[in-house]
Amino acid sequence: MNRQIFVNLPIKNMERSQAFFKSLGFSFNPQFTNEQGACMVVSENHNYVMLLVESFFATFTKKPISDATQATEVLICLSCESRAEVDALVKKALAAGGTSPNPPQDHGFMYGHGFTDLDGHIWELVYMDASAAPPQA
């Protein structure tokens, strides 16, 4: 079985959140998108993020919904094909109203940077050249 992953994130405003992620180049599957939830396609390898308005998100849990602008419950990390792609996505996120929680980190074989989306969720972007990684001891 080829597993799929659906990361579910609570959001405050559907239109605003979709516009933000569309400006980064992501698309949405219209078959699974409406005013309560939007299925954002992360990759063709069956990886998706479900953006769910908070009232709908609350129907899936009895626990309180975390305010991602105040506390971090999850860090979402996406791989990128190059350092340039990492930097380009961060630049697009900042232009669309996101923020950068940390400066870029360069470890030689691995380069990363990230952004915080409009609802406070942290997205880490990483490019890694595994062939240049230090050998395991």
UniProtKB/TrEMBL annotation:
<feature type="domain" description="VOC">
    <location>
        <begin position="3"/>
        <end position="128"/>
    </location>
</feature>
<protein>
    <submittedName>
        <fullName>VOC family protein</fullName>
    </submittedName>
</protein>
<dbReference type="Pfam" id="PF22677">
    <property type="entry name" value="Ble-like_N"/>
</dbReference>
<dbReference type="InterPro" id="IPR029068">
    <property type="entry name" value="Glyas_Bleomycin-R_OHBP_Dase"/>
</dbReference>
<dbReference type="InterPro" id="IPR037523">
    <property type="entry name" value="VOC_core"/>
</dbReference>
<dbReference type="InterPro" id="IPR053863">
    <property type="entry name" value="Glyoxy/Ble-like_N"/>
</dbReference>
